[in-house]
Amino acid sequence: MILTIISSFLFFIALLCLGTTLVIHCRGFYHLLAEPLQIISESGLAKEVVLRNYDHLIEYCSPFYRGVLSFPDFPSSSSALSHFAETKTLFSCLSLAVPLCCLAGGFLLAIKTWWNHKITGLFILGHKALQTHQTSGQGEQNNLSRTLPAEFSRALRFTAWLCILVPFVCLLLFLTNFHKVFYGMHHILFDNNNWIFDAATDPVITILPERYFLCCGIGIILFLLLAAAALSRLRSYLFRPDRSGVKQKNVFSVHS
After folding, report:
1. How far is CA 69 from CA 83, 150, 151, 253, in A?
2. Which domain holds residue 20?
3. Which of 24, 137, 138, 184 is most buried, judging by how many CB atoms fall within 10 Å of its CB?
4. Amino acid 177: pLDDT
């Protein structure tokens, strides 16, 4: 059960990193909200200028971008450039964490399934000494190939619950005091105060208001809730009835 929970947590981290990367890097999301959130009117800049500089920032934060950051229309202080460099590294780590967490979670499930069947095989051999080693080995392989999807489905169930519970807690925190959450997150992710900008030296901060990041947080929450629904559908597919009309879940339950 411990390995299943760890695997589920790894799958959840992968989904969280994926959702964060997709929402933040979706330029259309910012373009859609720039006017309703009054970002353009409060910045005092033309819409084309705001969107052009934001798009350049997002392009720079991509892990595939090579080069230094230079805004088309904004000056930047050394501390701001240092912060955006750290942000770029953070997004690169998030992108890398998605496949690594998925592979690590799948590996743990495979190890757990193999170990459970190893113990089960020894128990069977002790009580059925007349069976040949070849027959026992074939039976273990068959059971292993049938039980691994069940272990994977259990992990998906826990992951789906995490995709519901964690966003629910985050949403409560956002609605209670997002400003405190926003500042706390920066203190956790960065070990300096370079993220505190002065609009006089770094006017880019005028097009990155806190309320936009609140919308990003809500977007990530919606992504996780959709992921929970998708995982539930995937579990239903893995546990669909077989040809005999008996659900696979009943077959796997003896190995739980």
Report:
1. 11, 48, 46, 56
2. 2-255
3. 24
4. 92
